[in-house]
Amino acid sequence: MAHLSPEELIAKFREARAAGEGQPGSPRQLKLQRELMEGCPAFTPNLLELARVLRLTDEPGVPAEEMLAEVQRLLEHAVQASNRSADALIELAYFLNTHRNSPVEARKLLEEGAAKALSSVEDAWAGLISLLEMEGQFPQALELSARAERIFPDSERVMGAAHAARHAAVVAGLLPPDAVDS
After folding, report:
1. What are the distances in angstroms from CA 164 to CA 147, 154, 155?
2. 31, 95, 92, 97: which is closest to 59 by C-alpha?
3. Whether 13 contacts 43, CB under 8 Å
4. Ramachandran region of residue 101, left (φ > 0), alpha (ψ -120 to 50) or beta?
5. pLDDT at 2
6. In this predicted model, what pLDDT tens digit does every residue of 38-60 receive, in sequence order?
7. What radius of gyration do the chain's Cα atoms show?
8. From the CB of residue 161, how many other CB atoms can be counted at a distance below 10 Å?
9. Are 142 and 166 in contact, with CB atoms under 8 Å apart?
10. Could you report how far apart the first and last alpha carbons of the chain are, in Å?
């Protein structure tokens, strides 16, 4: 099978999801999602969705433990294929805690997932503060700066963006000159 383009992947993914509307886990939905998994085993959104659907589905003739083993394989593959993304780590952690009584492993995965998610938020907020400042939206930039500085007090990116936003607000006459840290 030739590799699918990103557009084709998304179209097939949407088709599979639509097949489950009104009846999540329908035989058609499971067939389409499994075909997509076989065609593109590294497409993480499908792996995560298929794992979720399988947990909610009572497939005729499939013992519960067999279904749980498939779900676990899908989630482990999603973690690997996504380069240990926060979403995949968190999904696997919930599964291990709920279905495998493995709170120690789940905790490690949740901690890693939380750290990755926080890192993304830190990067996004630093970028958003800078963008708001460049657009002259100083009140929003200053509000987000205050929140970001509280949550990420050691972040050079956040501190730099916040400082630049305060400086621009001073230049615009919205803050007194002493509002900018030296």
Report:
1. 15, 16, 14
2. 31
3. yes
4. left
5. 73
6. 999 999 999 999 999 999 998 88
7. 23
8. 25
9. yes
10. 61
